[in-house]
Amino acid sequence: MDLLKGYISKIQQLESALMRQNFSNACRHGLHDQLAMDQDIFLNELGSGCEVETTDASNEVDEEEKEREHSFMQDQLDKELQELDKRLQQKEAEMKQFAKSDTSVLKQHYEKKLTDLEQEKKALQKEIENLRHALTNISSSMDDNAQKVKENYLQKLNALESQVHELKKKQEAQQQLLRQKQRSDEAAKRLQEDIQRIKSQKVQLQQKIKQESEQFRSWKAAREKEVLQLKKEGRRNEYEMHKLLALNQRQKMVLQRKTEEAAAATKRLKELLEAKKSSRETYGSANGSGMQALIRAIDDELEVTVRAHELRSYYERQMQE
Hints:
By secondary structure, the chain is an all-alpha fold. It has five helices and no strands. Helix 3 runs antiparallel to helix 4 and helix 4 packs antiparallel against helix 5 (291-320).
C-alpha cells in the first residue's frame, strides 16, 4: 500500500507540473503572435507594391508637366526665331535700296561738282575785282568813250555778281546733297550693323533651340529607361505579392488546423481531469472496498499523465514550428 501511495503521489506531482495554467495560454498566444507577425510582413510587402504604384503615378504627372514645359519653350523660341527672320528680311530689303545707288560714285560726283563750283566762283570773283579796278581808273576820265566803257563794265560786273550769287546757291545745294549722302551712308552702316547683330542673335537662338531639344531628348530617353525599370520592378513586386498571398493563406490554414488540434487536445485533457477527479472521489468513498478500485484509480492517473505529456509535447512542437 505504501508503494502504491508513493506511486500515486509521484503521478500527482507530474500532473501538477503539466497542468499549469500559463502553459496552455503561452502556447495559444504564441500561435496567434506568429500569425500576427506573418500578417504584418505581408501587409508591409503589399504596402511596398502600393508605394511603387504611387511612385509610378507621380512620375507620370512629372513627365506630362515636363513635356508641357518643353512644348511651351519650343513655341516661345520658334516665335522669337520667326520675329528675328522678319526683322532680318526688312533690314535686308532696306539695304538693297541703298545698294541700288552707287554711293561711292554719287559721293565723288557731289564732291567734284562742289570743286568745280568753287573754282568757277573764284574765277568770277577775280574777274569782278579786275572790273572794279578798271572802273576805278575809268572814273577819273570824263570823255564819252570812257563813259560807255564804264557802263559796259558795270553791266558785266552786275552779271558776274549775279552768277556768283547763283553759284553760291548751287554750292549750298550741293553741300546739302553731300550732307544727306553722308547721313545716308551712316544709316546704311547702322543698317548693316543691325543685320549682323540680328544674324548673330539668330545663330545663338538656333543653338539654344538645338541644345534645349537635345536636353529634352536625353531626359526623355532616361525617363523611358527609368519607366521600363519601374515596370520591371512592378511585375516582380506583383509576383512577390501573389506569393505572399498564397503563403499567408497556407499559414492561415495551418494555424486553423493547429488551433483545432490544440482545442481538441485541451478538451480531451479536461475530460481526463474530470474523470480523474471522479475516480479520486470514488476511490475516497470506497477506500476500504478493495484492490480493484485502487488499480482503476491508478490506471486513470496513468492515462491522465500520459495524455498530459503528449499534450505538452504537442505544444512544444508547435512552438518550434
